[in-house]
Amino acid sequence: MKVDLQYDYNYRKKAQAAHSERWPVFAVKGRVKVSIISSKRLLSTRPILFFSLIMLLKSYLAWMVIFEGGPSWTTLLKEIPFVLIVYCLIEWFASKRKLLYYLIANVTMTSILFAVIMYYKYYGVIVTYFALAQVNQVTAVKNSVFSLMDPYFLFIYTDVVVLMFLMFRKNRAVEWKNSFKRKENTRFVVGLLTVSLVICLFNVLPNRASMNEIVKAEQMGILNYEAYTIFSNKEIEYVDSDQISQEKINSVKKTQTPAEPLLQATAKGKNLIVLQMESMQNFLVGLEIEGQEITPNLNKLVKENSYFKHFYQQVGQGNTSDAEFVVNTSLYIPPRGAATQMYAGKELPSLPKLLKSHGYDSATFHTNVVEFWNRGELYKAIGFDRFYDAEFFGEEDTVFFGASDDMLYKKTIDELERMDQNDNPFYAQVISMTAHHPYTIPDEKRLITLPERFNNTLVGDYMVSQNYADHALGTFIEDLKARGIWDNSLIVLYGDHLGLPIYSLDRHEKDLMAEIYSREYTYTDMINIPLVIVNPDKNVQPAQYDQLGGQVDLLPTVANLLGAPLDDQVHFGQDLFNQTYNILPQRYYLPSGSFLSSQELFMSGSGFEDGRHYPLAGDGNDESKTTEDEFDRALELLNLSDSFVNHLPNWKTEQK
């Protein structure tokens, strides 16, 4: 059917005179004139509608990135009511500069959504204002952050750029400001505000008990969840100090202390060298790509010593620094924030202090500046005698934010030789850094060439950087042997944290990981890191252990080998050579309530009943092997650790 539309100029002039409006009106010839207000006019004169539509589109983008099911019609009901509350308040209170307030609110909520997207891509969790308080640390890893940014993420700021451009056009800016002077009907604003508030409360209140933060954010809506975390201010219910003891911890863990522990004191009086390897995951062990070993030196260590294949990270926001904390204290990371920020002021029981009572000298080696993640304060709280940081290693041959692994090992070996010449044994923690996300190392350090399908992928760059780190490690091992330190030392090597987050990989990269594993890459694989223990006792034979372990277990394991009893030191780990059962609570990279048992990884949902189960073997078997009792005990362990640290005295106060 053909409709003839006639532009009515007279009507337009009348409308302009009467209403100062500039929009054309069309009439249907031969029948009746129908006034059709264009969407452009409606949006330009109703800012609450214009900006709400923009925020809805941005919310859909965030949901596409974060939630498995993506956005749906419920996204409208979960995100827009919060937006409307903000805009209704502007309509109610702003009599002047209303456009400015709309722009500020728009940019603020946009930035929250953008931060949520980027943080999820890096950590796999929903960022809150507690984590954003550490945003100053992001500048040091800006390359990692930028590498995770898909170009379409920037679309979230498109409207901001366009509006700023229009604002610099004087005529357009005046026109916009005049159109925004139109004040919404007060009754309409109050009614819309009331309905929006009720819907927000309906989204938030029933879902407060959800354990999984991602599930909670999806149930509440992202903006509602962010507001909830600010105003909920839920205090931790700490256990009284007189109820915290090693016996209590062992009871919750169901740990049985053997009468005659295996391998006890087999490394007594020897040096201790702890090698913490940046981003090293367990799948690297024995990995070959078309005949090329990715980590030949690590593979040799695994074959010739004690190797734990079911060993897992227990870090949080502080990543590498959190690994340092957990390994040296056998305590869990705090419920929020990095351990170095939250716990560094405490008088912490630690491995350096334990070994000092047995005559050990201690030092830690890290090529970054000691101020990063507040390490200087942590080292004092832990009790290291000395630390070596960027000032010691210099700026020669730097990669990312510190000297390369070659330079780390080259300068560290000289210090270890000097320490070894003393009468007393030493404890040295050496932290590698070159294989750091996003793994774009200099060309001269790219020592292998992978097949073309790995080019320009995070997976390919990761393996190339780990190959370099392994090469530098091999050189360090040879130097230790040549200088007579190797045979006189207990060597512990482990990964500090994951290197390839599932949520950072695109479809092609996930296919590459599936090729490596011959199955889907899972969360269990993601947090699985290697542990190798080199015992100088010649009677200790090479072996591969199936025992489940985590970074919290290193202190008691090492203490047993060195013959340093932990009778008077509270610890949450266990000796891996003398236990067959373990339970490992997880925080941060996995939802609250997640833990590992001896057979699987459990990831919480709203609680235990709707949680997910991931077998350690990665065989895809969905049969549950964890129990609700284990779930409750994992949460109790975390609370006991939080409570124990809370009751510790502050070392700064004690010094005064």
Automatic annotation (TrEMBL):
Pathway given in the UniProt record: Cell wall biogenesis; lipoteichoic acid biosynthesis
Bilayer topology: Multi-pass membrane protein
Catalytic residues identified in the record: T320
Sites where the protein binds Mn(2+): E278, T320, D496, H497
Pfam families: Sulfatase (PF00884)
UniProt GO molecular function: metal ion binding
Protein's name according to its UniProt entry: LTA synthase family protein
Record bears the keyword Metal-binding: yes
Entry keyword annotation includes Protein transport: no
Location(s), subcellular: Cell membrane
Family indicated by similarity: Belongs to the LTA synthase family.
Keywords per UniProt: Cell membrane, Manganese, Membrane, Metal-binding, Transmembrane, Transmembrane helix
InterPro entries with a match to the protein in the record: Alkaline_phosphatase_core_sf (IPR017850), LtaS-like (IPR012160), OpgB/LTA_synthase_biosynth (IPR050448), Sulfatase_N (IPR000917)
Domain Sulfatase N-terminal: 270-564
Amino-acid positions noted as binding substrate in the UniProt annotation, renumbered to this chain: H436
Highest taxon listed in the record's lineage: Bacteria
Main subcellular localisation: membrane
TM ranges: 48-67, 73-93, 100-120, 152-168, 188-205
Gene Ontology annotations for the cellular component aspect, listed alphabetically: plasma membrane
